[in-house]
Amino acid sequence: MSFVRRLSAVLLVCFALARPAAAVDWTDIWWNPAESGWGVNFIQSSNFIFATMFVYGPTGNQPFWYTAQLTRQSNGTWTGPVYQTTGTYFGNPWNAANSSATPVGTATFTPANSYSGSFVYNVNTVVVSKQIQRQTLTAIPVGGTYRGAYQSVFTNCTNAADNGPITYDSTWTVTQTAGGAITLAVVSKDSFTMSGPYIQNGTLYRIPGASYTLAGTTVTASVSEIKSTSQGLEGTWTANVGAAYPGCIENGYFSLLFIPS
Asked: How far apart are CA 107 and CA 3, in angstroms?
């Protein structure tokens, strides 16, 4: 019995899945705004992206379906095989005999930042290289009251004792004006505010030049990956906070639960 228990414990450890550190979610519609009419959809599942491309054949008016199965590489790129798929005419009953997925090449997505990058793929001997970005459909409301946690990770501090992560429980009041600005007012042990004009990229917002007031001083922060989730709000920021904490660079992360009024 003792051996069985030890074996069970070992198996549980072997099959345990550890969540990776916070990272960008690439799920979105992607396109090149100068080339409206084609695009690629990314659906991410952990370190895997299933991509569907809506493109056209040599005549220019016949759509083709290509899919790619991309796996995250150690250098941050995503690479995998490309398949050409066929199936039954949509007006007829589905016939599995008409379905096929033929490998025709390889695709690689190389992010430049959280909202754009390059997408290179080949279909047999034809090589395609595109600059793509998230496609925005409609404005996404994020204003409201939230409760949750944030973590600040300090590095490069003059006082080495100030380096490291700090995690706080907090209440956030988020104000959003249409086509204007987002303000994040945070009440915690160390209260602060971040505000400024926002840019929407697909399902994400960012405030590239946010006014960040903390510890009686105001600095500039870059707030990014602000995303409305089914339960709340999440995002990240980075700032040189040396004016408040000598030498310190701060990288912050927040995950919040929406509190209905």
From this structure: 48
